C-alpha cells in the first residue's frame, strides 16, 4: 500500500517553509515506530532562502498502518513560535497544509505507460547507478509524472501511479476542477481552515 502525503507552505513566508522541514523531521522520527516507510519523492524549494516550500512523501506499509499514521495530519497544521528568522517580527502563528493521495484502483494502471530511468533525486549514489526512477504517462490525456525518490523501482512506480491518478482526476472531472479552484483559493489564504494539529516552540513540540 502506497499513500502520498503532500506538505505545503502554500504562499506563506519563509517561516512556513521552515515549518515544512520541521514537520518532515517530525514525521521521519515517528514513521519507524508506526511500521511505515517514509520516502521523499519530490521537493520544491523557496527561491531566495532555499527552504522547503513543499514536499511530496510516499508512505509504504500495511494499509491500516499508513492510514493511522497519515490521517491525523491531513488538513491545516499550526506552528506557534516567535520567528527564528525575523526576531523582531510580531507574528507567531505559521500554517501548513497537508494533503493525502491514495493509491488508485488496479484498473488505472492499464491506462498508463511506464518508462524507467536513472534517478538524480534524493536516492543518492545507489539510485544514480540503477534505473530506479519511473516516468508514468496517462495515455489518453498525455499527463505524466516522474518519481525517483526511492531506491525501489516498485515503490517509485506505486507513488507515480498515485500522483498521476490525482492529476488525471483533476484534469478530466469537472467536480475535481472545482475542488482544485477551491484549493487554489485556500493556497492563497494567509491562514488555513480548522487546525488538526498544533506544534510549539523552536523544537517543534506537538502541543
Helix-residue proportion? 25-40%
Quick one: how many beta strands? 10
Question: What is the CATH architecture assignment of the largest domain?
Answer: 2-Layer Sandwich
Report the sheet-strand fraction. 25-35%
Q: Please give the CATH class of the largest domain.
A: Alpha Beta
Features:
207 residues; alpha+beta; Alpha-Beta Plaits; Double Stranded RNA Binding Domain; 2 domains; 3-stranded antiparallel beta sheet; 10 strands; 32% helix; 31% strand
How is this structure best described in words?
The protein is an alpha+beta fold and 207 residues long. It folds into two domains: 2-102 and 192-206, Alpha-Beta Plaits (2-Layer Sandwich); 106-172, Double Stranded RNA Binding Domain. Helices cover 32% and strands 31% of the residues. It is built from five helices and ten strands. The protein has helices at residues 14-31, 63-70, 125-129, 153-172, 174-188; strands at residues 2-8, 37-45, 52-60, 75-80, 93-101, 112-117, 133-138, 144-147, 195-200, 205-206. A seven-stranded mixed β-sheet has the order 2-3-1-5-4-9-10, sandwiched between helices. It has a three-stranded antiparallel β-sheet with strand order 6-7-8, covered by helices on one side. Strand 9 (195-200) and strand 10 (205-206) form a beta hairpin. The longest helix is centred in the C-terminal third of the chain and has 20 residues, at 153-172. The model is unreliable at 122-127 and 186-191 (pLDDT under 50).
Amino acid at each position: 500500500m502506497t499513500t502520498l502525503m503532500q506538505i505545503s507552505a502554500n504562499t506563506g513566508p519563509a517561516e512556513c517553509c521552515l515549518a515544512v522541514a520541521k514537520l518532515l523531521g517530525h514525521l521521519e522520527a515517528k514513521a519507524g515506530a508506526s511500521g511505515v516507510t517514509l520516502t521523499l519523492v519530490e521537493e520544491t524549494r523557496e527561491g531566495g532562502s532555499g527552504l522547503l516550500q513543499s514536499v511530496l512523501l510516499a508512505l509504504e506499509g500495511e494499509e491500516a498502518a499508513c492510514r493511522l499514521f497519515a490521517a491525523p495530519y491531513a488538513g491545516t497544521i499550526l506552528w506557534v513560535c516567535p520567528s527564528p528568522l525575523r526576531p523582531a517580527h510580531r507574528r507567531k502563528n505559521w500554517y501548513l497544509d497537508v494533503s493525502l493521495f491514495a493509491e488508485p484502483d488496479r484498473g488505472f494502471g492499464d491506462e498508463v505507460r511506464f518508462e524507467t530511468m536513472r534517478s538524480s533525486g534524493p536516492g543518492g549514489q545507489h539510485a544514480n547507478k540503477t534505473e530506479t526512477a519511473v516516468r508514468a504517462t496517462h495515455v489518453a490525456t498525455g499527463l505524466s509524472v516522474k518519481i525517483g525518490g526511492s531506491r525501489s523501482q516498485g515503490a517509485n512506480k506505486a507513488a507515480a501511479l498515485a500522483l498521476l491518478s490525482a492529476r488525471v482526476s483533476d484534469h478530466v472531472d469537472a467536480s475535481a476542477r472545482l475542488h482544485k479552484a477551491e484549493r487554489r483559493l485556500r493556497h492563497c489564504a494567509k491562514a488555513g481552515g480548522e487546525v488538526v494539529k498544533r506544534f510549539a516552540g523552536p523544537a517543534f513540540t506537538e502541543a
